[in-house]
Design a protein that fits this description.
5-stranded antiparallel beta sheet; D-Maltodextrin-Binding Protein, domain 2
C-alpha cells in the first residue's frame, strides 16, 4: 500500500500539470515582425520531436495522452506562436537526430548544445538549468567538497556520461565506480558499496519517490549543470528567431513552477498514516479471531464427514477394482491369441478359450469334455499321467515341446505346447498353452534355404566372404561365417579361421599388423565400415596382397554385423607398385633435368654477364676515346657517338635483364632476400600493392631448394598477374618447426580447385612437380570471388637446420 502512494501522487501531479497546460490563459503574442508573422501563417503545424524519458516526456497508455515537463513547455510556447504541434516520439537521442537529418523534425526540446549538434540544429538560449547532484546517506547538513575527498571514498555514477568525463578530468583524486544506470548507483549506495552517487536532478526527483531510497539525501553539487535548450531546424533561421522571442516572453515564474511540478525533490512520507493502520489492524485482528473460532468448529465437523465418506468410497472402489480385474482376466483369457486349455487329471478338457477353438477349427463349446488323445493320438493315458507327475512335482522345470496337433477337419497344425500346473479351489488342472508355429516353421525353412543360397553365392565369389558379429556391446567380435573360398585364397579351411585364436588377423604380414589392427579397431569402435589393404601370408608361405572391404550393419540392442570380402589384388598391387616406381624414376629424371637446366641457366647467366659485359665495357671505352679524339672535328660524328653510347647502355641493361631472368644474382644473398626482391619487382611491373614478410635469420638452404622455392614464387605471381585480377597480394615466408612455409595470397576472382581439363593449368602442374621434387607439399585454397591462397611447405634437413 505504501509503495502505491508515491505512484498515486505522481499520477495526480501529471493530471494537474496537464490541466494547467490546457487551462492556462494563452500567452500574449510576442512582437513578431511581418516576415516572421508571414512564416507562421504558412506553417500552421510544427513537428516536435520528443525524447521519451521521464519526467521530460512520457506516454500514459490508460489515458492515451502525453505528459511531462517538455510537453507542457512546448504546449505553452506553441500556443504563444499560434501553431499546433505534431508530436513525434523517439526512444533514443540517436534516432531523434537521424530523423532530423532526414528532415522529419522542426523542433526538439530539452537538448544540450554540442559542437556536433551545431552542425545540425539552431539552439535557443537555455530555458532550464538541471544540475548534477551528489547523493549520500542522511548524516547531517554538511556539504561535500570534492577536492577534499580521497581515493578511499568512492563515487558511483552512470558511465559513459558527461558527468563521468567531467569528474575524471577535473578531479583525478576521486575513485569513480562505473554503473549502467542512476538506479544502480543509488542501490550501490544503499548496499554501502560506495560512499556517494552522482545523479542529475530530473532523474533523482523520480528515484527519491520510491520508499527504498527514502534514507538518502542531497549532499552537494558537482558544478556541471545541464543547460536545456530548444533546437530548431538549421535551414529555417526564422523559426529559431520566433522560438527565441516566444521563450523571452514566457514568464520565469512559469518555468520555476514547471520545475517544481515535475522535479520535486521530496521523500515519500508514510508515518502520517501509521495510526490509521494500527487501528485498522486491531479491528481486523478481533474479526479474525472470531472467524477463526467458527472456522475451526466447522472444519472439525467437515473432517468427520469427509472421513466417513472416504471410507465408503474406498470400499466401493475396491469392489469395482476387483470386479474389473475379474472381468479383464476372463476377457484376456477368452480373447488371447494363445490357445489355453484347462485339462483334468483324466486328460479331459474342462475349459478351452476362443483362440483354441478358432486355431483347431472347433465350434464354440465343443472342445469341453473331449480327451486330449483326439488332439494328439500319441498322447494316451499313461503318457498324460507321466506328464502330470512331472509338471506337478516341479522337479524337471516347465515342460515345453512341439507337436502337430490334429484339427477338426483332419489336418495337422504345428503348435508349440507349454504345460503349467494350476490349483483352483479344491481341483487341480494342467494348463496347456498352444501357440501356432506355422509361420515360424515357414520362416525357419526360408532361413535355411536363404543360408544355403548365400553359401552357394559366397562359394562362387572369387574371394573370401566373411561375417564379423558382435552380439552385445563392449564384447569382442567373432567370425560368424567364412566362405569355403578360404582354402583357395590362403590354404586354410573356414573352420580353422573361425577359431577365436586365428581369424584373418593371424594371416597378416608382421610389417602390416599395425595398420591392420588400427583399421579394424577403428571400425569396431565406431560401428563403421571397414577398409584395409596389405599383405597376407598363405599356408604355403607365399606373400599375397589383399583388399578387405566390409559394410557395418546394426541390428539394434548393441548387436552389430560386418559383412565383407577379402580380394586377392596381388597382380594389381604389383602393377601399382611398378607404376609408382616408374613415376618415382620419372620424377627423379625430371628433378635431374631441372637441376641441369638451372645449372645451365646459371652458367649462361655468368657468361652473358661476364663476357658480354666485358665486350660492352671495352666498346664503351672505345666510344669514349673516339669522342675525346674527334670531338667537334667531323660533322655528324658527335651525334653518331652519342647514339652509340645510348645503344651500349641499352645493351648493358639487356644483358643484366637476361642474366637476371636466367638466374637472379640475389639468390646468392639467400632465399629471403630473393623473395623480397622478386615481390618488389612484381609490384613495380604490375602496380599491384604487395605485402611481403620474411624472417631475418633463416638457415642456409641448399641451392636446389632455394631455386625451387624461387621458381614457385615466380609462377604464382605470374598466375596472379594473368588470371586473378587482384587488387593486393600478400607473401609470407616463415619457419615452422623443421619446415619452411611460403604463403602467397591474393584478393582476386579465385577459381574452383577441382580437376582441370587436359591442356589447362600447366603452371599449377609445374608447381606441384617442383614441390614433389623438393620433398614438400602444396596446398591451394580458392573459391570464386574470394581470392586464392597458395601454401608451400618444404622440410629442411638436419644439416640445414644446424
Amino acid at each position: 500500500m505504501h509503495r502505491l502512494l508515491p505512484r498515486i501522487a505522481l499520477a495526480l501531479l501529471a493530471c494537474l500539470g496537464l490541466a494547467w497546460a490546457e487551462g492556462a490563459p494563452l500567452l500574449v503574442h510576442p512582437a513578431f515582425n511581418p516576415q516572421q508573422q508571414a512564416w507562421l501563417e504558412q506553417h500552421r503545424e510544427l513537428r516536435v520531436g520528443l525524447l521519451m524519458r521521464a519526467p521530460w516526456a512520457q506516454y500514459d497508455l490508460r489515458q492515451q495522452r502525453l505528459s511531462g515537463a517538455n510537453i507542457e513547455l512546448m504546449t505553452r510556447l506553441l500556443q504563444g506562436m499560434g501553431v499546433k504541434p505534431v508530436w513525434l516520439r523517439f526512444p533514443s537521442q540517436a534516432k531523434l537526430e537521424a530523423a532530423a537529418r532526414r528532415g522529419e523534425l522542426d523542433l526538439a526540446p530539452g537538448l544540450q548544445q554540442t559542437p556536433k549538434g551545431l552542425r545540425q540544429w539552431l539552439y535557443s538560449d537555455p530555458y532550464m538549468r538541471v544540475p548534477h547532484l551528489i547523493v549520500g546517506e542522511q548524516r547531517g547538513n554538511s556539504a561535500v567538497d570534492l577536492d577534499r575527498l580521497d581515493r578511499t571514498e568512492s563515487i558511483a555514477l552512470r558511465t559513459p556520461s558527461p558527468a563521468a568525463d567531467y569528474l575524471s578530468s577535473t578531479y583525478p583524486n576521486l575513485q569513480l565506480q562505473a554503473v549502467g544506470s542512476e538506479r544502480s548507483a543509488l542501490q550501490r549506495l544503499l548496499r554501502q558499496q560506495t560512499r556517494y552517487a552522482v545523479v542529475d536532478e530530473a532523474r533523482l526527483s523520480l528515484l527519491l519517490r520510491e520508499p527504498q531510497f527514502a534514507g538518502l539525501s542531497i549532499v552537494g553539487d558537482i558544478g556541471l549543470p545541464q543547460l536545456l535548450r530548444i533546437a530548431s531546424r538549421r535551414d529555417e533561421p526564422l523559426l529559431a528567431e520566433i522560438v527565441e522571442l516566444t521563450l523571452q516572453a514566457l514568464p520565469a515564474r512559469e518555468v520555476e513552477q514547471l520545475r517544481e511540478r515535475w522535479m520535486p525533490l521530496k521523500y515519500p512520507q508514510v508515518s502520517d498514516s501509521l495510526a490509521f493502520w494500527r487501528g485498522l489492524s486491531l479491528l481486523l485482528l478481533i474479526a479474525g479471531l472470531g472467524a477463526t473460532a467458527t472456522t475451526l468448529h466447522l472444519r472439525q465437523q467437515r473432517r468427520e464427514l469427509e472421513s466417513q465418506l472416504l471410507n465408503s468410497r474406498y470400499e466401493l472402489s475396491q469392489r469395482e477394482v476387483a470386479e474389473q480385474a475379474l472381468h479383464l482376466s476372463q476377457f484376456s483369457i477368452d480373447h488371447s491369441t494363445v490357445g489355453i486349455l484347462w485339462v483334468n487329471w483324466d486328460s479331459h478338457v474342462r475349459y478351452a478359450n476362443h483362440a483354441t477353438e478358432t486355431m483347431l477349427g472347433y465350434a464354440p463349446g465343443t472342445l469341453v469334455g473331449r480327451p486330449l488323445r483326439e488332439l494328439e493320438p500319441s498322447l494316451d493315458m499313461d503318457s498324460w499321467l507321466n506328464l502330470w507327475r512331472k509338471v506337478r512335482s516341479h522337479d524337471e522345470g516347465p515342460q515345453s515341446f512341439e507337436i502337430d496337433c490334429l484339427c477338426a477337419d483332419g489336418s495337422r497344425l504345428p503348435v508349440d505346447v507349454s504345460l503349467s500346473f494350476l490349483r483352483f479351489r479344491d481341483a487341480e488342472y494342467l494348463v496347456v498353452f498352444l501357440t501356432d508355429v506355422t509361420e515360424r516353421r515357414r520362416a525357419s525353412a526360408a532361413l535355411q534355404e536363404s543360408e544355403a543360397r548365400f553359401k552357394g553365392i559366397a562359394g562362387s565369389v572369387p574371394g573370401l566372404v566373411f561375417r564379423l558379429e558382435r552380439t552385445v556391446a563392449e564384447q569382442p567380435v567373432v567370425f560368424a561365417y567364412i566362405s569355403e573360398a578360404s582354402v583357395e585364397l590362403v590354404g586354410y579351411p573356414a573352420e580353422e579361421l573361425q577359431r577365436a585364436d586365428r581369424g584373418i588377423r593371424s594371416l597378416v604380414h608382421p610389417d602390416d599388423q599395425l595398420s591392420y589392427r588400427f583399421s579394424q579397431d577403428t571400425a569396431l569402435a565406431g560401428n563403421s565400415d571397414w577398409s584395409w589393404q596389405g599383405r597376407i601370408i598363405t599356408r604355403d608361405g607365399r606373400v599375397r596382397w589383399a583388399d578387405i572391404k566390409a559394410t557395418a550393419r546394426s541390428l539394434g540392442e548393441g548387436r552389430m554385423l560386418w559383412d565383407g570380402i577379402v580380394w586377392d589384388i596381388t597382380e594389381n598391387k604389383q602393377v601399382e607398385l611398378e607404376l609408382a616406381e616408374s613415376r618415382g624414376r620419372l620424377r627423379e629424371l625430371s628433378a635431374h633435368l631441372e637441376s641441369v637446366r638451372e645449372e645451365e641457366k646459371a652458367r649462361i647467366a655468368r657468361e652473358v654477364h661476364d663476357e658480354l659485359g666485358q665486350v660492352l665495357t671495352v666498346l664503351k671505352l672505345e666510344t669514349a676515346m673516339c669522342e675525346l679524339a674527334f670531338a667537334n672535328q667531323v660533322a655528324g660524328l658527335d651525334e653518331r657517338l652519342e647514339s652509340m653510347k645510348r645503344l651500349i647502355a641499352q645493351l648493358f641493361q639487356l644483358v643484366r635483364d637476361v642474366a637476371t631472368a636466367l638466374r637472379p644474382p640475389i639468390l646468392d644473398a639467400g632465399i629471403a632476400s630473393a623473395i623480397e626482391w622478386q615481390v618488389r619487382r612484381f609490384e613495380a611491373r604490375t602496380q599491384i600493392p604487395c605485402l611481403v614478410e620474411v624472417p631475418d635469420n633463416l638457415p642456409k638452404m641448399s641451392d636446389a631448394k632455394a631455386i625451387g622455392l624461387f621458381r614457385i614464387l615466380q609462377e604464382a605471381l605470374t598466375n596472379v598477374m594473368r588470371h586473378a585480377d587482384a587488387h593486393s597480394v600478400q607473401v609470407h615466408l616463415s619457419l615452422e618447426d623443421d619446415e619452411l612455409c611460403l604463403h602467397v595470397s591474393d584478393d582476386g576472382k579465385g577459381f574452383i580447385t577441382g580437376p582441370r581439363k587436359i591442356g589447362q593449368s600447366f603452371g599449377l602442374v609445374g608447381m606441384q612437380e617442383r614441390v614433389l621434387m623438393l620433398g614438400g607439399s602444396l596446398q591451394i585454397d580458392s573459391l570464386p570471388g574470394e581470392g586464392t591462397t597458395l601454401c608451400v611447405r618444404v622440410a629442411l634437413s638436419e644439416e640445414e637446420m644446424a
